[in-house]
Design a protein that fits this description.
The radius of gyration is 17 Å and the shape is globular. Strand 6 and strand 7 form a beta hairpin. It is α/β, with parallel strands linked by helices. The strands form two sheets. It has a five-stranded mixed beta sheet with strand order 1-7-6-2-3, sandwiched between helices. Helices cover 33% and strands 19% of the residues. The protein has seven helices and seven strands, in the order H-H-H-E-E-H-E-E-E-E-E-H-H-H. It has one domain.
């Protein structure tokens, strides 16, 4: 995966965080989270270079794998779809999946950055955090394929990594539940590590205070 462009656009960042935190885009919680994420952004390139210089064996020794990614291991072939977000070190995610054995060998498909630039893949509207977000996704998604939803995150101290996420098998999901499980997994990746999430563009057309009824009727909301 190519190097990810980090967005430092204040307005777009605030809009995105307002949906994740379900708060006003100018609220204290949004400002605080944005400040933490921007501190991470300033150090991200240095951290990325250090881990990218390791070979796969060395890299695997620095990675803790979240149980959600090991509960349904691949035994025959790699997953057909891998989705990630602009969280942590997405450029290094394909190598991390290979180094830890989660891709059952070299990845035979592209890792899709769902909050990446529009036009980099098919664009679709997808519900995230109770709002209609524009995401990029493979053609025909979601289908009955096996999906890895993962992010490679920097652990406290910047000396090790967490491979966080889940694996969903289309064959094991009840009919019509695939999109819902994917939504929950994407929201978990973003929300649980929002201080490392800095997408390059706004995902929603408006801030949460204009889209969520409970915020429109609170002080500071915009009717």
């Amino acid at each position: 995966m190519d190097e990810i462009r980090i967005s430092l656009d204040e307005r777009n960042h605030s809009r995105n965080l307002s949906w994740v935190l379900h708060d006003h885009s100018e609220s204290r919680s949004v400002r605080r989270t944005k400040a933490i994420a921007r501190r991470f952004a300033r150090n991200r390139e240095r951290i990325l270079r250090r881990f990218a210089a390791l070979n796969n064996e060395e890299l695997s020794e620095q990675i803790t794998v979240h149980p959600g990614l090991t509960s349904n291991p691949v035994t025959v072939s790699p997953p057909t779809v891998t989705l990630t977000t602009s969280s942590g070190l997405p450029e290094l995610l394909p190598r991390a999946l290979e180094a830890t054995g989660l891709s059952a060998g070299p990845l035979l498909h592209t890792v899709t950055l769902v909050d990446g630039p529009l036009g980099s893949s098919d664009t679709m509207t997808f519900e995230l955090f109770r709002g209609q977000a524009k995401i990029t996704a493979p053609t025909g998604f979601p289908g009955g394929e096996t999906v890895i939803l993962a992010a490679l995150l920097v652990r406290p101290g910047d000396s090790s990594l967490l491979l966080y996420g889940t694996r969903l098998s289309g064959a094991d999901l009840p009919e019509g539940r695939g999109a819902e499980e994917i939504r929950r997994a994407l929201e978990s990746i973003i929300r649980d590590h929002v201080d490392q999430w800095i997408p390059a563009r706004p995902l929603w057309n408006e801030p949460a205070e204009r889209g969520l009824a409970e915020l429109r009727h609170e002080p500071g909301g915009r009717p």
